[in-house]
């Protein structure tokens, strides 16, 4: 069935919403076929019935959009079909489908969707969802088959260069009490690191952080900001929801970038996230990752930019350092703050004359570019910038 034929089956005013939004119908033949398939499901109506929302929520857990990694007409159709139901639910009801609620709120705030919806108000009026008050999700991880249980991958922090984390003595105590004894062998020297097997993004890794800190201990991944707002209790902080390709959904990340990057430049942005620092409380909000940003060599007032992955990158893709000793090494699951791994490596983070992000070995002075399998990560304009 063609796209036009599938849209013609939608009832009004949903059909008008999809047509007025003029969203992408798919960049590839496979995407186009999937867009048509989703619109056909929406036209049948079963996918958005109240009893089907739990199944739909499960499908949306790892997704930002229903087709590929960009907004399409399928998202507009699904949003419009969900609107009558979501607009009538109470918080306790839509909290039970967190991925679906997050998805709906993200789609309804896209500029093209909002513009098309406003022309059809009140049919598709903006739905106020109390997402900030939602109960925290329990992040689960499969138990390790080894005798020693690795720390949870999800328990990571986000502390930007501009903001100091507020210590949580109780959490520190619990962490110490539960810390596994280090009975494993020390991490191999940098020259042998390439012999390790690479762990997939979001996978389980062994916390082998003995020995000198090396860059490959840092877990970096492609992230996608699906929602961003200002921290209610801190003028300089953003609270972002960042999709890292994890089944548990997006991570909450707090970044001190309000005075340096406009909120509209943060929305829908793809970036590089550091995912294995210890969680940090930032003015009452726990942050589970850190965005990698470039600060001008003339100081932060001269400019701060998010490091950007190659075009076409997808949330959760592995980001690593070039070089045989680093490319195939496995990052530790969580960096021990006492080891100061990131603090030791970070002074070598910079942008080259090509604006490419890299780590410069302080001993050999060799530059190891930061990249994904598809290309090198860059700063939009800054040369010689520090990264943190």
Walkthrough of the structure:
There is one protein chain. The chain is an alpha+beta fold and 388 residues long. The protein has two domains: 3-131, Glutathione S-transferase Yfyf (Class Pi), Chain A, domain 2 (Up-down Bundle), CATH 1.20.1050; 169-387, Beta Barrel (OB fold (Dihydrolipoamide Acetyltransferase, E2P)). Helices cover 24% and strands 16% of the residues. The protein contains eleven helices and 15 strands. The chain has helices at 3-8, 14-21, 29-44, 53-60, 73-86, 91-94, 98-108, 111-118, 169-178, 263-266, 341-345; strands at 220-230, 238-243, 251-255, 270-274, 280-282, 285-287, 290-291, 293-295, 304-306, 318-321, 349-351, 357-360, 367-372, 375-376, 386-387. The strands form three sheets. Strands 1, 2, 3, 4, 7, 10, 11, 12, 13 and 14 form a ten-stranded antiparallel beta sheet that branches. A three-stranded antiparallel beta sheet has the order 9-8-15, with no helix packed on it. Helix 2 packs antiparallel against helix 5, helix 2 (14-21) packs across helix 8 and helix 4 (53-60) packs across helix 7. The protein is elongated, with a radius of gyration of 22 Å. It starts with a helix and ends with a strand. The model is unreliable at 144-148 and 153-200 (pLDDT under 50).
């Amino acid at each position: 069935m063609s796209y036009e034929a599938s849209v013609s089956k939608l009832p009004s005013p949903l059909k008008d919403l999809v047509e007025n939004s003029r969203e992408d119908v798919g960049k590839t033949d496979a995407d186009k076929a999937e867009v048509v398939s989703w619109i056909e499901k929406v036209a049948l109506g079963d996918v958005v019935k109240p009893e089907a929302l739990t199944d739909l929520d499960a499908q949306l857990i790892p997704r930002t959009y229903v087709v590929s990694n960009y907004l399409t007409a399928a998202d507009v159709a699904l949003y419009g079909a969900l609107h009558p139901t979501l607009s009538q639910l109470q918080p306790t009801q839509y909290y039970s489908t967190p991925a679906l609620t997050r998805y709906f709120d993200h789609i309804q705030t896209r500029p093209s969707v909002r513009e098309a919806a406003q022309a059809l108000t009140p049919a598709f009026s903006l739905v106020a969802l109390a997402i900030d008050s939602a109960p925290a999700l329990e992040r689960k991880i499969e138990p390790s088959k080894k005798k020693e249980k690795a720390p949870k991958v999800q328990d990571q922090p986000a502390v930007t260069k501009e903001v100091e984390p507020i210590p949580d003595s109780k959490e520190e105590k619990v962490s110490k009490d539960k810390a596994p004894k280090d009975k494993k062998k020390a991490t191999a020297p940098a020259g042998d690191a390439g012999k390790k097997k690479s762990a997939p993004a979001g996978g389980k890794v062994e916390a082998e952080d003995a020995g000198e800190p090396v860059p490959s201990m840092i877990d970096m991944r492609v992230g996608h900001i699906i929602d961003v707002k200002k921290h209610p209790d801190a003028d300089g902080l953003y609270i972002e929801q960042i999709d890292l390709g994890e089944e548990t959904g997006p991570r909450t990340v707090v970044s001190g970038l309000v005075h340096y990057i406009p909120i509209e430049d943060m929305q829908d942005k793809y970036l590089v996230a550091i995912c294995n620092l210890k969680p940090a409380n930032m003015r009452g909000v726990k942050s589970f990752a850190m965005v990698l940003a470039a600060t001008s060599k003339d100081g932060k007032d001269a400019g701060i930019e998010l490091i950007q992955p190659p075009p076409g990158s997808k949330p959760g893709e592995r980001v690593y350092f070039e070089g045989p000793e680093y490319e195939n090494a496995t990052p530790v699951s969580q960096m021990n703050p006492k080891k100061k791994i990131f603090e030791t490596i970070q002074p070598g983070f910079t942008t080259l004359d090509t604006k490419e992000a890299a780590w410069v070995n302080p001993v050999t002075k060799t530059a190891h570019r930061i990249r994904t399998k598809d290309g090198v990560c860059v700063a939009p304009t800054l040369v010689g910038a520090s990264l943190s």
